[in-house]
Amino acid sequence: MSAGHAVEAFRAAHGRDPEGVFSAPGRVNLIGEHTDHNEGHVLPFAVDRRTWVAVGRRDDDLATVRSDDPGTEPVELAVGKLATASGWSAYPLGTLWALGVGRGWDLVVHGEVPLGAGLSSSAALESAVALAVDELAGLGLERVALAAAGRRAENEVVGAPVGIMDQAASLLCREGSALLLDCRSMAAEDVALGFEAADLSVLVIDSRVRHDLADGGYADRRAGCVAAAEALGVPALRDATLPAVENLPEGAPKKRARHVVTEESRVHEVVGLVRAGRPEEVGAVLSASHASLRDDYEVSVPEVDAIVGAAVGAGALGARIMGGGFGGSVIALVPADRVDAVTAACGALRPEPTVREVAPAAGARRDI
After folding, report:
1. Taking the CA atoms of the chain, what radius of gyration do you get in angstroms?
2. Which helix (H) or strand (E) holds 261?
3. pLDDT at 209
4. 166, 206, 296, 367: which one is catalytic?
């Protein structure tokens, strides 16, 4: 009863009931890594790990936010200063700022999306807050606009130049399906994966190597993509072709562009495979994606490479680093009868990874 837990925490903090409790899921991206901020396609699905936010409006211009996570402190800011939020509070308070709220709010957070593990706990928090404010304030925004508000919070308040995929997945995904999202037009369609029927499981293997997308590595990779697009004379790398990329001078922009262009092709390859009833062949595409992320985009780390090798060696059909990179988690496609073997093989590594089996879940919703 995590929604009930959020209610009790709100009562304890504010001496009254919340007006509502809203939740949103974390996500994994099956394929399409670092294509989102290059206006390409991605194929994420929401996972069965959620963040709940109990919400109540105030009669003044103060916004307060607190979490039951022991590593956080309560924060209170005037509405006019929300853009100055920092630390963990920048995610929820930045979302309030992006939505242009003109009154005070009380937010109490209960999260079950692991932090820093590549499951986008930040987007889950932003999406739950955005849906709550939209409904309670009667903003009447489409969910794509709510996703854009979460992205703006990360870009302009948190300082992480992320794309819109994480927030869109958290808000738009449906249970049992991935979401094929065009990050330029925001056109989206559900894609039934067929993994369960094929006795395939998806494991998310947390390396326990933490990353911070605001620390410069992500921004550096994105800058390389922008430089490559300018050199190629295209609006974004989704418009580039592989032959044109191969004609670029050797260097980081060429490598970044090669990853993006080949990853864009891999997204459509995976969609074709699952729609053709061949989901077991997706594993090889995941492994090809990891090689590209490791060698061309250069966002893997030795601990993650070891997990990929151990998983595939123990029977996974394929595996790759996911999320922003520089640590975080690996996604692996595994026959159901090899889950225990893959888990054991990863458990022999140091630091010992945390292995979670995930399933496609519903997007953001009102729970109470």
Report:
1. 20
2. helix 252-275
3. 86
4. 166
